[in-house]
Amino acid sequence: MNIFENHIPLEKLKWNEPLKDHTYIKLGGKADILIHPTTKEEIINVVNIAKTHQIPLTIIGKGSNVIIKDQGVRGITLSLSEFDQIKVYGDKIVAQSGSNIIDVSRTALHNSLTGLEFACGIPGSTGGALYMNAGAYGGQMDEVVERALVVTKNGELINMVRDEMQLGYRNSIFRTDQYIILEVEFKLKPGNKDVISSIMQDLTFKRESKQPLEFPSCGSVFKRPEGHYVGKLIQECNLQGTRIGGAEISKKHAGFIINADDATAEDYLELIKLIKKTVRNQFNIELETEVIILGE
Which of 64, 172, 220, 250 is catalytic? Predict the structure, then answer.
């Protein structure tokens, strides 16, 4: 018996699917079941099926800030990457959680709305950006988000306002794993299109010149410790360029670990351990990972 029959179209289901094909870093094991829903109803159906049959449920977006372990993910992996519509209502933008946050910032530009310029180079999904309270170049999601539509693990829809989201530095209530973000509403301000475009071009140039975008990576691996820059700490530990297996601390930006040559998740996790241990021993600073680690 197919428990998904009449709930999810078969073409949206994949069994034993390699998750390295669905993440920016291009590594990790297989999902038992990978589902790509395109409607709210399908997402709620999956949540209810997982609850009814007591199947583990893991959520991913674009897979930009995630490491999937080599043994993969058991149960259902729900990818929201195709749930990606973006709509504009005056000075508000409502984006489904699987949309690219970069595309949302471009939509703001096209509609002469200011506030999302900082997001023009952040890889990954809108839902993932809210989950992490992502930020760059002095801007952060909590400054522009007004509301989110979420579904609980019990299949209940809830409208959540910003104050309920507990948005902190690279943190939010969504990291407790009780909610799945469906839609994010942004409140922006009318602005000058040329000025907005100029800021975005400048930020894009800074990002491309400083970050190792030519290699697969999961972006910034560590949260920034107060009063310090992670890249500088790693450089001062003489770790830049260090490699374990196919994973390497980027020579271009030491805050990034790149997949230089068919790395495994184990290579990556060992390199993270080495960085944390060395920085702790040398500076007595405990680095905290920003990247999400999933699987077994």
Answer: 220
Please give the Cα distance from 176 to 60 (Å, whole number).
15
Amino acid occupying residue 247: A
Interatomic CA distance for residues 126 and 95, integer angstroms: 7
The model's pTM is 0.93
Distance CA 137, CA 129 (A): 15
pLDDT of residue 2: 85
The verdict on whether 17 is a catalytic residue reads no
* 220 tagged catalytic: yes
CB atoms within 10 A of CB 275: 24
Q: How far apart are CA 232 and CA 71, in angstroms?
A: 33
170 — pLDDT class (breaks 50, 70, 90): very high
Whether the predicted pLDDT of 1 surpasses 90: no
290 is a catalytic site residue: yes
Rounded to whole angstroms, the Cα distance separating 146 from 12 reads: 31
Specify the DSSP element, H or E, that contains 59: strand 57-60
Among candidate residues 17, 42, 117, 290, the one labeled active-site is 290
Q: Which of 12, 27, 219, 189 is nearest to 114 (CA)?
A: 189
Mean per-residue pLDDT, 229-241? 97
pLDDT digits (tens, 9 = 90+) for 7-66: 999 999 999 999 999 999 999 999 999 999 999 999 999 999 999 999 999 999 999 999
CA distances from 278 to 78, 227, 274 (A): 36, 18, 6
Nearest to 213 by CA among 130, 70, 102: 102
Residue 213 tokens, joined = 């975008």
Q: 117, 170, 185, 250: which is the annotated catalytic residue?
A: 170
**What residues have CB less than 8 Å from 227, skipping those under 6 apart?**
none
Number of H helices, E strands in the chain: 6, 19
Whether the per-residue pLDDT at 193 is higher than 60: the answer is yes
